[in-house]
Amino acid sequence: MSKYFTNIYDTVNTLWTGMRITFRHMMNIKKDNVTLQYPEERWPRPERDIGFELEDYNVIRTRLHVDIDDCIGCFRCEKACPVDCIKIDTIKAGRGEDIPEVAHTGETSNGTKKGFVVSRFTIDMSECCYCNLCTYPCPEECIFMVGGPHSSKHPIDYEFSEVDRNDLIYQFAKKLTPKQRNDLQQPKEKAKA
Amino acid sequence: MTIDFIINQFTEIIGNFPVAAFLVACASVGGLLFVLMALNAMVAVYVERKVSAFMMDRLGPMGQGPGLHAGKWGILQTFADAIKLLIKEDTIPKSADQILFKVAPFIIFIGAIIGLSALPFSSSIQAVDLNVGVFYIIAAGSIGVIGIVMAGWASNNKWSLYGAMRSAAQIISYEIPAGLSIIVPIMMSGTMNLQNLIEYQSGSIFGIFPNWIMFQNPFAFLAFFIFFISAVAETNRTPFDIPEAESELVAGWMTEYSGFRWAVFFLSEYANMFVVSGLAVAGFMGGWLSPIPGFLNSPVLGLFWFFGKVSFLIFVMMWFRWTFPRLRVDQLMYVCWKVFIPIAMLNIFGVGIWKLIFG
Q1: A31, closest residue in chain B (CA to CA)
Q2: Which residues of B fall within a CB distance of 8 Å from A15?
Q3: Domain ranges in chain A?
Q4: A18 near B CB under 8 A
Q5: What is the predicted ipTM?
Q6: Range of the domain at B173
Q7: Which has the closest alpha carbon to B1: B131, B195, B281?
Q8: How many distinct structural domains can be found in chain B?
Q9: In CATH, what number does A64-192 get?
Q10: Which one of A24, A130, B112, B324 has the largest count of C-beta atoms within 10 Å of its C-beta?
Q11: Which of B56, B62, B324 sits opposite A15 (nearest CB)?
């Protein structure tokens, strides 16, 4: 019989303990909250070095970016890409010659004279395997992974989902109208002739 | 503001048409009660989500982000849920009993709304002022179980049937301690009329404490807890939710229901919570009387006190739900038959002696 009453007492006691705990959590929600309101708030991006030399290679491989004004159209990144997700087309132009109609500058920021107008530079980020192999051959260092030593050139961005798969094919070259493309190709043929 | 009042007004202004007066009064009062029921469910669902979230260190519905907006702090979440439920496809299983399947939600709904009609919201606002109010609400609460068994049987689904049988066993068992405990205030006040029951609780103990029945003697205090916990069990809420038991029975007797019919079940569940809390408030916690004796007592403020107390009890139900794990079936029956009923019996005995000694 005393067991019966001890059981009732224990039940009430332990239930009350549990209720106190949940009530305390409810009242301290501002402090205890673990949910992050994702689009508005984000966890801090981990800063870590994964590379061989800290200054050069602490890149968290987030996303490829191309400074198209510095690109000389040498195709080395396209050849280096193991999954062939980089596609480049070029049109021959005068070496070091500015073509203001298509916003083409003749020199890169390193002072190299460009011989081509890059008419197409696409990276299919849905195919990209983030191997970083395309960034080493680049003589102008214009293709790079966002972040790390390049974080000053482009904001860090590792959240780039799209609704349509085709939106993951990033166009870096300036858009050329068919007429502009034609005009660029004409002088070459004239010179030949 | 009872139905009689509206009938009298109708007769005075328009003329002596008893049937028309009755229909108009019933429709208007019924409409108001339905609005109350819907609002109660909307607010309670939102609060329940928030309370559950806060107790689990989450934030609950926040409605942030493009395309996901449900107002600041997710206030519009229940509206969105209601719209979703209303435009959902209404599916009825092929092998279900077509008539019973359709009738069951209405019976449960009726069980909830007729209980609501006898609650004393304030000294002057009550749909029907019955002289057997307590008895009526207890009886109305039992109608729901018919609908539940009907829904479970008609669904032609083993989970539904299990849920319905468990629900029937549970509701019928827990009605006994609930009924035995509500006898305590009836014995003390000598009336079953809810208004008189509340008026009996006016005044104060030692000039400071409210003269609520639950504070008048230790047996009544115990009876309040037994009644309230049995009421939680009668509304099929956690920790007594073995009829629904998500992890065992999918959704119990609601498994096959969807869309509006399911919304009706949901509405009735929250209305039932309101009714049992209202009865507990009227019977033990002084109904529409102010918790500080003689302070801010008026018919309009009575409404505020009544809803405040009911909201508090509904919050306690949510608190129970998000704290306690579900009881096993045998534990459920043990608590009812071996703990609550003997103590409730002793309570009645004790209150009888108390009345003999202290008047």
Answers
A1: B57
A2: 323-324
A3: 2-32, 64-192
A4: yes
A5: 0.76
A6: 92-358
A7: B195
A8: 1
A9: 3.30.70
A10: B112
A11: B324
